[in-house]
Amino acid sequence: MSAREPDLLEPRALSAAYRPTALIPTDTVASRALVVVIAIMTFLACLTAGAAILIGEASQSWRGDVAESVTIQIRPRLDEDAEALLAKVAEAARTSPGVAEARPLSLADTQALLEPWLGRGLDISKLPLPRLVVVRMRAGHGADLGPLRTAVAVASSEANLDDHSAWLDRLTAMANVIVSFAGAVFLLVIVAMSTAVGFATRGAVANGREIVEVLHFVGASDGFVARQFQNHFLGLGLRGSLAGGGAAALCFLAASVLSAWWRNSAGGAELAALFGAFSLNVLGYFALVAICIGVTLLTAYLSRWIVLRHLRNVQ
User: I need a surface site. Which of 25, 164, 247, 266 has the fewest CB within 10 A?
Assistant: First the structure.
């Protein structure tokens, strides 16, 4: 006795015969390629933003150090006692408001400063070199140098106060240029990523054009159709941004560990003095997280906007 053929009208047979096709295929070459593109762009955006944050922090540290450091140059006359004049000016600087420390440099200290240019063993006592007093201002008093200028002028007419304003202006200008350049690169990366998302969304709409238009004509709301694309690209953006942002965070962590190791060498100490410890603080990592969230939301928003614009043009 042969087995009974299934009745196509039975609910079980109907459910087996009907296989709903997804409006947007979830696992395609184009989807995987878009995830890779988003990951790369997010990685570059996070690196650029992190570098701008590091440079900004290093610049702020430089400017703070320069603003709080003042040098007094003394050019004593031949008939004057240089050491006595140096001590007099240093004492006048110490008693000025806002001064934390005033340290006169001895001849040995001055010779150590000149050794890279003049070499060792040179007797500089016979040279008409200015004597220096290094002054460190208290925090918040770097811009108020009026009392110190007055005290130095009263102590000696041969003393000249150098507040390093020229260096401070150069450091500020350099930092602003670098941060502005990083911001421009960041915007270019975001524009490139948005362009890639736009092309991918248009491709997905073109592949499912018949289904999209049928749903539109049978009464499906534009919001429903756009939501399918939005959710699809939201998932792709989340995967890509997490991969790119995670890779960037790992790079900064590795740079922090390596910089701590390099700091023991002479070259590493100089790099640390110029650029800091290559270590992002908590706010820096929060910025990376914010970029990942922004990339994900931007991907979803662009896909929704493009689909809605396409549906408005469907007659």
Answer: 266
Residue 3 lies in a domain: no
In tens, the pLDDT along 97-146 reads 878 888 888 877 877 777 777 777 676 766 777 888 888 877 765 566 77
The dihedral sign for the CA sequence 245, 247, 253, 255? negative
Judge residue 15's burial from the number of C-beta atoms within 10 Å of its C-beta, 0-12 exposed, 13-18 middle, 19 or more buried. exposed
Neighbour count for residue 205 (Cβ, 10 Å): 19
Residue 62, token pair as written in the block: 């430089």
| SS3 of residue 166 by DSSP | helix
- Provide the domain count of the chain: 2
- Whether the CB-CB separation of 263 and 201 falls below 8 Å is answered with no
Do 254 and 120 lie in one domain? The reply is no
Tell me the C-alpha to C-alpha distance, in Å, between residue 48 and each of 147, 181, 250. 43, 10, 14
Among 131, 157, 183, identify where a domain stops.
157
Residue 86 lies in domain: 76-157
Domain contains 2: no
The sheet with strand 131-137 has its strands ordered as: 99-104, 131-137, 69-74, 159-162
Q: Which residues contact 5 (CB under 8 A, 6 or more apart)?
A: none
Same domain, yes or no, for 42 and 96? no
Amino acid, single-letter form, for residue 74: I
Per-residue b or e along 44-62, where b marks 16 or more CB atoms closer than 10 Å to that residue's CB: bbbbbbbbbbbbebbbeeb
pLDDT in tens, 2-41: 444 444 444 444 334 333 445 666 677 878 888 999 999 9
Strand 159-162 and strand 69-74: the pairing is antiparallel
> Is 150 a domain residue?
yes
